[in-house]
């Protein structure tokens, strides 16, 4: 194991946290979802550093940080900071939440909808920022490493589920190998995967004429 690698057993102890209704309601604010994303993306931050990133006052970010901490969505970094300048981090591990569904209460559905909308809006904005970044700001090796692909396939639901499981296993292997890595040349990267069915207006027999269309941007 090099100094840049994290022991596999550390990754194995990380747990998936499923957000309950109270946690979802605490998170159901655009700035709170953004703060949680920034803590995951950039590591520990203070109210002041988050304010500079978001474009709000430190009083506003401090208020939302306390609300997130009250539901254990974030935590104070032990041994760092002062009484006036506290550092906050997102606990390691994955968070999962159900999208709005009919089994939720009206307030629960509204909270889940806000969280889901903001999560995917931030995710899309991150992609747009990457695509619009001037090439002069991106080292050549990172331009070459970036990869975007969209593929259209004809599959059954079980086949799509199997593909999703294979992708999950591949990403989990990378998570266990690389999470926590530090050192020269290391940057935070984002891994995206979206698998879902498309409304199918094709006539009967169209499957015989199906084609796979792939677009790659790099």
UniProtKB/TrEMBL annotation:
Region of interest called Disordered, as start-end residue ranges on this chain: 197-218
Looking up SMART domains in the UniProt record yields: HTH_ARSR
- A molecular function GO annotation: DNA-binding transcription factor activity
**Name of the protein described by the UniProt record:** Helix-turn-helix domain-containing protein
- Domain named HTH arsR-type is located at 22-120
Q: Which Pfam families match?
A: HTH_20 (PF12840)
Which SUPFAM superfamilies does this UniProt record tie to the protein? Winged helix' DNA-binding domain
């Amino acid at each position: 194991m090099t100094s840049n690698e994290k022991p596999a057993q550390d990754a194995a102890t990380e747990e998936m946290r499923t957000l309950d209704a109270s946690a979802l309601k605490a998170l159901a604010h655009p700035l709170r979802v953004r703060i949680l994303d920034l803590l995951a993306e950039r590591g520990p931050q203070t109210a002041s550093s988050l304010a500079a990133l978001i474009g709000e006052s430190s009083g506003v970010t401090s208020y939302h940080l306390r609300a997130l901490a009250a539901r254990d969505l974030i935590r104070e970094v032990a041994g760092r900071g002062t009484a006036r300048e506290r550092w906050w981090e997102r606990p390691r591990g994955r968070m999962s939440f159900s999208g709005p569904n009919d089994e939720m209460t009206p307030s629960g559905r509204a909270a889940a909808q806000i969280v889901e909308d903001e999560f995917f809006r931030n995710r899309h904005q991150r992609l747009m920022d990457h695509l619009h970044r001037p090439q002069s700001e991106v080292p050549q090796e990172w331009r070459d490493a970036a990869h975007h692909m969209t593929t259209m396939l004809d599959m059954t639901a079980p086949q799509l589920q199997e593909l999703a499981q294979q992708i999950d296993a591949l990403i989990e292997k990378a998570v266990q190998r690389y999470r926590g890595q530090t050192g020269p040349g290391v940057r935070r990267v984002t891994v995206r995967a979206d698998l879902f069915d498309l409304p199918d207006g094709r006539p009967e027999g169209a499957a015989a004429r199906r084609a796979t269309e792939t677009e790659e941007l790099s």
